[in-house]
Amino acid sequence: MQENPIPPKPENTVGKQLYAYQQKAIDEIFKRLKDHPTRHNLLYQLPTGGGKTVIFSEITRRFIELTGKKVMILTHRVELCKQTHEMLNEFGVKNKVISREVKELPVPNDYMCFVAMVETLNNRLRDKILDLDNIGLMIVDEAHYNSFGKLFKFYEKGVLIGVTATPLSSNILLPMKDNYDELIVGESISSLIEMGYLARATTWSYHVGLTSLKVGRNGDYTVSSSERLYNNHAMQDKLLHAYRERSLGKKTLIFNNGIATSQYVYATFTEAGYKIKHLDNTHSPKERREILDWFREKPDAILTSVSILTTGFDEPTVESIILNRATKSLTLYFQMIGRGSRVIPGKTEFTVIDLGNNLSRFGLWEESIDWDYIFRHPEAYLESLRSDEEIERHYKYLMPDELREKFAKSENIEFDIKEEHYKALAEGHRPKIVVDRSIEQHLRMCKENSETLDEAIELADLLKEEIDYRVRVYSRCLSKTSESYVKWLQDDYRRKLKAGLLRDSHHDDESFEVFPEMGEE
Known about the structure:
With 521 residues, this protein is an alpha/beta fold. It is built from 20 helices and 15 strands.
């Protein structure tokens, strides 16, 4: 694979350096503001890792220099407040963080820029400790959260600029086009990869049946239904197998939807002998610092977490991202993968493992996406996303090459459940014969490629994913798709497969002969 080129030298600015594409974006934003002397709200999109904080810090510096007016920057996380404060300092912008501890400000004061969390600022404004009359520009970081509308009644005179990697509101009832007049689309992920500013992702997807998941009021999968799916032993085995196959020895972040799942992942990997730590929002600041320091220093560290590291976390040495969850949030999908996209010397690529069919829903992280269409037509975009049922219907199991080698002595491993179902009906058989014939083929495959009963049973265990797939297709042919029914069929199939191996081993103790046709019970 071609390595990323070395990025061109940044352009100088006061106390900081800008890349050419960042300077271009800033010039474009100021041109828009100049072209619209009256209130014109702008939304700027740039992928995670592209340097949004750098860009709006330079906008702040230049705006203060050009107008002499003050700037307010809003974030939604304490960590982002701190990062923004430090970046503004690098640009030579004297700024004040409005934290919970700040109960009042002297008037007048010599701060030209303030940084605050939305809720904290709203409380200070409501208590009339602050006012926004002298603010000429408000910048909203992570603008897709769309939580700043409550501040509009305090801010009517100045300019508003929102910045985000995904211009799609987290609340479908509050579309971003209602708050912003125009979207400016920055460099694409693929462009930033080609220029060497982002690492290239190699994505591996492992299919997971998601039809048991429930969607909550926020539009995403509920924690309870996710934990029922991802906490089971089979899913933990799949996760561990995927890690060993694609990420072994790499510094890895695992994202989960639920604290219990993350703790289960921690226990599974610990039992397997891997160095791993768990992090969630119940950890104290001291515990979090210790865990992140450990993760930063250990080359092959594994960190399993819940939501807390999707924003405000920057660890460029991450080499592998595992999505051990499904999501319906395009923003979350990009945020999670973006944690591995930072480029450092010696790292131009990273691995993504998808265990939630997210790739089937949203496409590859680096694929071209029409952000302007999403901004203008969010409802239509969301409706166009593939449902879990549709993904399941179109999924076709393909035996991995490594597994196919274990069945090398079997000339034919294909079995079309739908075709066999049509054939059975045409021949006047009960549908159950389809499962019997499928088991018959799997029995033959296990016996052809083993010399002992133990070896045959080991091969049967390796067919679990294909068995689950065949049974799901069969259940759809019967129009019976309840999860309990499907699970019973899958378990029954595996029992009959092993029972057949045991039965045939008793018929001939010295060797495995291909057994006669099973027929219907």
